[in-house]
Amino acid sequence: MKRINLSFYVLLLSSLSVGLVLTAVLYKVSPFFTSRTLFLCQKFVSGMMTEIPRPVSNLLILAVGIVVGTGLLSFLVQLIKTHIFLKKLLVKKIPVSRVLAGVLEKLKLTKKVVLVKDDNLFSFCCGIFSPFIVVSTGLVRSLTVKELEAVLLHEQSHLISRDPGKVLLGKTFSSMFFFLPIFRELHKDTEAVNELLADQWAIRHQENSTFLRSALKKILAAPEVNLAAVSNASGPDYFEIRIHRLVDPGTKHKLRPSPVSLVTTFLFILVGWFSLQTPVNAFHSDTMNNNAYHSDTIFLCSHDWACSEECRINIEQPVKYIPADMLVPEKKCGND
Question: Which residue ranges traverse the bilayer (predicted)?
Fold first, then answer.
């Protein structure tokens, strides 16, 4: 397996693509929103009663706001939870033991590992800009030198690849695009591949999977530790995948999207394509009589503005133009 997590890059590319589609649709209806906003401001200044605006553009702006807000909230919540967890845990920081110091020197991790006094068996890599590894005294006591080396090699892989930052982005994108389950599945696959790549790194350096397997067995036999607040901590969900790969290196790990994620992704692509294909322009027309507005006409027309000009000329005549809906092909002005 190459040391490239394709799932992460697919997730990143998909997130950028969906973000571009949403931005393009929002930009498409912005003339309508701007025109309506200007008219309502004029009505407010003139003392007229404010009408409820047509909901299409407002709903789209609200939806995009919810998407962006959800992503930012998820990002901030993860950072805060990780900060609080580490602040409580690092209070128990102690100098590294002689055995651990020897392993760290061999792996060139002397300044990258923090030892905390805790009887539970755990180790994880954390930090975005300056990642580091946290190891418990319980883990150091329970493992042999070779097993400890295997665990630290696994964490070293996360450190080198900056996996905590990737996992943080993956969780943010899966929360932001909650309406597309494929992002959640891509994020889960990203985490699984991160673990498999880290195991592969350890095995390649030790030229043996025995020590990593025995270390995993000891960790699984110990009471489970809740490390949910740490973005890159390996949970029990991935132990089974890791053990299968360690027992049978020929086991292939493949992303298998669910039918729901495939259907929702297809529908999003279809609706997005159709929305972007529908030409939209907007303007409002006001008729003045005795210093008051008597009509409020909003048109959605083609981009060449020819339809807009024809509609402006024929405002006082019987309506010949049917406003285009965002998701329905436009019926242009004319005598048809």
Answer: 6-27, 59-80, 121-140
The pTM for the full model equals: 0.73
**Total structural domains within the chain:** 1
Nearest of 36, 42, 39 to residue 57 by alpha carbon: 36
pLDDT digits (tens, 9 = 90+) for 13-59: 888 888 888 887 777 666 655 555 545 554 554 444 444 445 556 67
Return d(Cα 224, Cα 212) in angstroms, integer.
18
* Residue 272: other Cβ atoms inside 10 A: 17
User: pLDDT for 228-269, tens place per residue?
Assistant: 666 666 666 677 788 888 877 777 778 888 999 999 999 988
Whether 86 is covered by a domain: the verdict is yes
Residue 322 domain-assigned (yes or no): no
* Each residue's pLDDT tens digit, 258-290: 999 999 999 988 887 777 766 655 545 544 444
Secondary structure of residue 289 in the 3-state scheme: strand
Residue 84 CB burial class (10 angstroms; 0-12, 13-18, ≥19): exposed
Q: Rounded to an integer, what distance in angstroms lies between the CA atom of residue 64 and that of residue 62?
A: 6
Domain that holds residue 152: 6-272
* Residue 110 domain-assigned (yes or no): yes
Tokens at residue 121, please? 């068996």
